Here is the input.
Amino acid sequence: MRLSVDVVIVGCGVSGLVAALSLPEQLRVLVIAKGGLEESNSILAQGGMSVLLDETDEDDYFADTLEAGHGENRECTVRIMIGESRSALDYLRELGVEFDTDSQGQLDYTREGGHRKRRICHFKDYTGREIITKLLQRAQQRDNVTFMDHTTMVDILESSGTCVGVRAVDGQGDELEIESGWTILATGGVGGLFEQSTSFPIMTGDGCRIAREHGVRLENMDYVQFHPTGLYSPGDVRAVLVSESTRGEGAVLLDAKGERFTDELLPRDVLCEEIRRKMEEEGSSYVRLSFEGLDADAVKARFPGIYESCLERGYDMTREPIPVCPVQHYLMGGIHVDENSLTTMPRLFAVGETSCNGVHGANRLASNSLLESVVFSRRAAAEITRQHAACQTGTA
Ligand SMILES: Cc1cc2nc3c(=O)[nH]c(=O)nc-3n(C[C@H](O)[C@H](O)[C@H](O)COP(=O)(O)OP(=O)(O)OC[C@H]3O[C@@H](n4cnc5c(N)ncnc54)[C@H](O)[C@@H]3O)c2cc1C
Here is the structure.
């Protein structure tokens, strides 16, 4: 079957949806997704989305991002992400996404590893679900946006070095040739390639692999982040993440003797190393995370999703420490893109986890990926809008 659209978006997580919603309504947009429309890592995001508090926070936020990234970040894109973070937040709220507020109606910021300040907006511990539910509703109301679930991109279409669409296979096994003026890859990370990961198994780096087969530049593909605290539960297909914000709110890591052995808010890569060393020393597959110092009702109210997931696996985190260990979590590298998310192939864009715009450097600062996805998907849509207008007026 052959289809023709103005823009095809491969992926239905936060980056694909924001791109779809940011494109002008006169463009025909098709979003395809390998699994169900809600089967994205975006929906799993617990901790939240980091934002600039005010202009006095700019240098601190920049320094925290670079420190976590070991200085390998692209400084200009970090500045863009931070500079556009408040407008990204306003944009989500205008679309109906809710974030927790305090009794005065002010945003209730939380803190995670590597952040020197509380600057993370969240909705309880299921920020991703809140974002995806609202964005999906909005996008499904748009007349110009069509969705095809269980439809897998197997290749991109190339003509004279320019991307002109994608080849896909639908749920019935039928092949589709989708011709498009512009193509956006929003295919997420590589967690499905790892034995223990917080990711849905369908995220297998397809965007990166296919891009590379067409000579599109990739960057830092070996920069893979492990999260320090996945719930140790060997039978699970996907590791349950115990958000960093649990540690931000006071949960502590204990060794086999029940003693604290590290600073829980170290950047992720450093803390993973500390935990690994402890596990090795003790010959154990996990360490323990204790909520003992926290009020049990407050823990249940603030972390309902994590509490339930642990309970389903036989652990009541308000009564006993839970077993945790490092698990694969995020890809900092990906398809090389510029500050407008354009790859090295004309008319091919990449956004979100599958792209590498350099904001994360060698290690992502917690809660910077939802933000990055929103900011740079909006920029991709703006650039496509500009290119489309130039084609219409013959100035391309
Ligand atoms: C458990 C967990 C908790 C997290 N918590 C946070 C957090 O609190 N804050 C934060 O900032 N970040 C967090 N992250 C990271 C963040 O959620 C992701 O990096 C981000 O949401 C990625 O969004 P995305 O749109 O790029 O990809 P995804 O949301 O993963 O979506 C990928 C999409 O691509 C589609 N796809 C893949 N391959 C193909 C193909 N071949 N053909 C068609 N479709 C394809 C999938 O079907 C899916 O729709 C968390 C991640 C996990 C796993």
In short: The first strand starts at residue 2 and ends at 10. The chain has eleven helices and 16 strands.
